[in-house]
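ok trying again, last paste got cut off:
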Amino acid sequence: MAGNRRKHFIRRLCGLLLACLCLAGGLWLYMTRVEPNWVEVTGLEMEGEIDGVFRAVAFGDTHIGMAKDIEDLRTLVAQINSLAPDAVLFLGDLYDDYSTYAGDAEADMAVLAGLEAAYKFAVRGNHDVGGGAEFVYPGLMEKAGFTLLENQAVTLPCGMRVVGAADYIYHSPNVAALLTDGFDLLLAHEPDLADAVTGAELQLSGHSHGGQVFLPFLLDRILPAGAEVYYRGEYRKTDGGVVYVNRGLGMSLLPVRLFSRPEITVVTVRGTGR
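nice, full thing came through this time. structure:
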């Protein structure tokens, strides 16, 4: 009798272990194959003192080289073009580590050059400074058809002022003097710059990957410097401005995502006139 009970216990234990292994394998497959390629298109709408309607697509944190390659860029370009934006806004971190990238950067930029929009603006992320990218990034973005803004601003015909901040980790963002009394759209890779800047109606940022591995029940999150206050989605500041943190498309440190799908953000500003 005792021998039968022991055999029954061993069989149940083996079954439990097998189920746990299958569950762990399925979770790993989801984190590495499914969610990283399951792009969510989100929307942000607001009113502002501009003429007409301004529609932009914001994306960032592609981290090419960390389980992302030129085929992912082709898919991205086709998806953004299908949205027919007035502007495309890149929020930084093009390559994960440019110094070790084995692909063809020229070919990558030729693909990104296929993005169809009247305006294409970019800012620099921390990976666009470190990892051997500091001196090549401006040239790469130029080949992709983007205007790189580093503590610089451009006023569009609709009256919107697009302001680009320098990277917050390696450099010194200095954009206060560039803000106007009209509608200012601030592009800043690291979202926590928002606490040092007042007067921007909308700030778009990336950097955090939305946590990349996001477990809602955890109170203490592992977040990168520069994204410890604002790290995913929409926030409203006391000065009336909006901060929106895009979860990005790629990954860093490990090629995994969990409950933090890659994201493209469609931003619509409906003009109230100037």
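cool. The radius of gyration is 22 Å. DSSP finds four helices and twelve strands in the chain.
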